[in-house]
TrEMBL record:
This is Prepilin-type N-terminal cleavage/methylation domain-containing protein. InterPro entries: N_methyl_site (IPR012902). It comes from Candidatus Sungbacteria bacterium RIFCSPLOWO2_01_FULL_60_25. Keywords: Membrane, Transmembrane, Transmembrane helix. The chain crosses the membrane at residues 43-62.
């Protein structure tokens, strides 16, 4: 009877071992790959994640460059008005007519002057006060040592400036370029325009003012 029990136990152990071996050899389910649509969607998501920040960064750099160029152009345009104002004041201080040398026309004006005080009618003034036919084509230059923009700098910029003097009285409402309450010979309309190219786009900055004989 004991032998029978031992034989039964041996058969059970063999059956259990066979069952475990059989289970361990059961085939795995087949691996499922990506479909074409899923692959395209995944690539689109990855591309968007990479290109989005790049485009945003490029746009930010472009905006910063444009803002810098616009600021420089605004200062150069205002400087053109201030140079003519300085010429007028120096004419008066020298005892000349307030508008001596400031005839109607377009001019290339430079902040660096040949004389002291700087006046348009004095000898050597052609270097800093030259007549232009229409728009002045000379590029303004930058001197990195002094930080001055002029026509005698060392590094060319993309800016061109034309200063126009016009005494013809024209009343165009809010954009009037003459003062009806002042005699025509006592005033002049001065316009300073700076142009530059931003990529493939042409830009312009204009500042204008009426200057008077303040004596």
């Amino acid at each position: 009877m004991m032998n029978t029990a031992l034989r039964n136990g041996s058969r059970m152990r063999r059956h259990s071992a066979f069952s475990m071996y059989h289970l361990s050899l059961s085939p795995l389910p087949p691996a499922r790959g990506f479909t074409l649509v899923e692959t395209v969607v995944a690539l689109a998501v990855i591309t968007g994640a990479l290109v989005g920040p790049f485009l945003l960064s490029s746009r930010s750099i472009f905006n910063a460059r444009y803002a810098k160029s616009r600021l420089i152009a605004a200062n150069l345009a205002q400087e053109g008005i201030e140079i003519i104002r300085s010429y007028r004041d120096n004419n008066v201080l020298a005892g000349d007519s307030w508008d001596a040398g400031l005839d109607d026309g377009s001019y290339r004006v430079d902040v660096i002057c040949a004389g002291s005080p700087c006046r348009p009618a004095q000898a050597g003034s052609a270097a800093n006060f030259a007549s232009c036919a229409g728009s002045c084509s000379d590029l303004i230059k930058f001197d990195s040592a002094s930080g001055i923009y002029s026509y005698s700098g060392t590094q060319e910029t993309g800016f061109r400036r034309t200063v126009t003097i016009d005494r013809a009285p024209i009343d165009v409402g809010a954009g009037s370029r003459s003062d009806a309450g002042v005699a025509a010979e006592k005033q002049m309309f001065v316009k300073s325009v700076v142009i530059w190219t931003d990529g493939r786009v042409s830009r312009a900055m204009q500042v204008d003012e009426i200057l008077y004989d303040w004596r």
